[in-house]
Amino acid sequence: MSHSKSSINGYPKNNSSLRILLVQFLWSQSDFIIRFLPRELDIVQRLHHQNIVDVFEIIQSESIVCIAQEYAAGGDLLKKIKKQGRINEDHSRFYFRQLVEALMYLKKIEVVHRDLKCENLFLDLCDNIKLGDFGFSRIMHNGDESHTFCGSRAYVAPEVLRSRSYSGFTVDLWSAGVVLFVMVTGLMPYDDRYPKKMVEKQMQHRYTSRAVMKITMCAPVGQQ
């Protein structure tokens, strides 16, 4: 088990604001610390892309990890949607293009995120998307498959919910599609309280009735 907290400070190297995340280990043998944290720390230091939260420095001891990372002053995408409702077509396209660019970069360096959701998409002062929280990420080479359940049920692909092996990049694409759906409609496409029924609706391409009503009222995101 671990405990984390964060604070906002200035970073002297580039005179910008950063978020300092402190992760304190409470149980030294927790699954998070053994399996996921070392992998996350290794991966985030490799990432350099304009649409991914930048990590400036990592300081680690036996019981605490201090991560100095870019501060997204605009908050996360979910809070924005909750505050103002669905996002218009042009702005949804703008955000989604930046998200896809981040995912294509990750694919190029063989990193999969596996926890893509609105809460992990942050906004900087210029309203640009910044993908963050790589706690479930891992290196997956072409042809590799995983069986680990990662992510939030509302965003994960059917094969993950059905406990089947999956390709990391394809499940990231599924989650990106859910993010796009939420942006355009302001609603989740599926009710994740009942996973079995959720999978059935996914396989039958049936969405929540409220979401279907919203879709009929707005133009497709790709339409000019």
Automatic annotation (TrEMBL):
InterPro entries registered for this protein in UniProt: Kinase-like_dom_sf, Prot_kinase_dom, Ser/Thr_kinase_AS
Protein kinase domain span: 1-224
A single GO molecular function term of this UniProt record: ATP binding
PROSITE patterns: PROTEIN_KINASE_DOM, PROTEIN_KINASE_ST
GO biological process terms, semicolon-separated: intracellular signal transduction; microtubule cytoskeleton organization
Cofactor: Mg(2+)
A Pfam family: Pkinase
GO cellular component, one term: cytoplasm
Alphabetic keyword roster: ATP-binding, Kinase, Nucleotide-binding, Serine/threonine-protein kinase, Transferase
UniProt protein name: Protein kinase domain-containing protein
Species this chain originates from: Parascaris univalens (Nematode worm)
